[in-house]
Amino acid sequence: MNRFMAVERALRTAPPYALADTVRRELAGLYAAEAVEFLVADYGLTMLQPVTTPPHALPPVSLRNGPAGRAFGAQEPFLESLVDQRLRVQLPVTVHGDRVGVLTVTLPDTEDSRAALPELADIAQVLGHEVLVADRETDLYLQARRQDRLTLAAEMQWQLLPGHSCSLPEFDLGAQLEPAYAMHGDNYDWSSTADRLTLYVSNGMGEGIEAALLTNLAVNALRNARRAGIPLADQAALADQAVYAQYRGHRYLSVLMLDIDLATGRARVVDAGCPQLLRMRDGAVEHIGFEAQLPLGMFEETDYVPQELQVEPGDRLIFVSDGVYAVASPRGESYGDAALTRAIQATRLLPASEVPGAVLRELAEHRGTPAPDDDALVVCLDWHGR
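Structure tokens predicted for Serine/threonine-protein phosphatase:
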């Protein structure tokens, strides 16, 4: 058994709470690692927190600067030559494009160590897969991800979300919600098969627990219909019935739904509310409008009609909630399409996973206050096609 396979087996058989200790022990014994640290990204994507028992026994490091932050942002190993002939490598821990954190490994700076760097990068990916599995059985990594206490509504929403990003040959996705530790009703969801990508961007009315309960009901109703193989418009109709049956029209949820054929880029769209879509094609940004239909749950037995959209290779689609484009500056100026267009063009060279955070930082400067009054959601889809 080679070294990589030995570490992989050790991680797959380790107790869920012991992954950091296991990778540290195995890399020390098989790769002569002098120090190993596993850091996870916090919910707000601002810090990398070392995984320790008890949680937060070590201080976090910034995700915006420093070697670990550079590896996380670029999604490439970052090497540092240290004194006394040592080498430190920062390795992204990522699962299908979902950025989990960084594995920091300090080694003797030898020919064998440098030759082992591709294996170590693969070990970091194995660690990421095992963390996602372990989250079902331990709170350790979820505790490490929080730099502050989550509200109950935010706890419910994070358990509902698929992740911050996803990367497959046909597309790259990135998403971010603010305030990360106190969000209410905004949500996104995605799912892919060999043939299709389905994406929902939603905004449930209300605040706090009431908004989170509404969003949980609607998103799970949409998932239930999707997993039954039901077409997009009928997914919306069934979720509409579920929400109306619970709230009788007193509460409802706006959603923009896309179902995209991976081979052709042809998309079916249901626009049931206020999430907005902007497209950047060949450097030009335009607002993509659809025929507006009723939000889910507003009236009994609403029928939904799918519309068509052609997505071309190279297109970047940006989805935003009303907590983005309706935000006012201290002088009362709405953020709006013009500011969004500038932000999208300014971030055109960033990968999809980095765009939502960059747009939300621009929004915070426009808002002029440290925390938003309403949820702000940005989803970025880069389409490559086949």
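Residues 279 and 317 are 5 Å apart (CA to CA).
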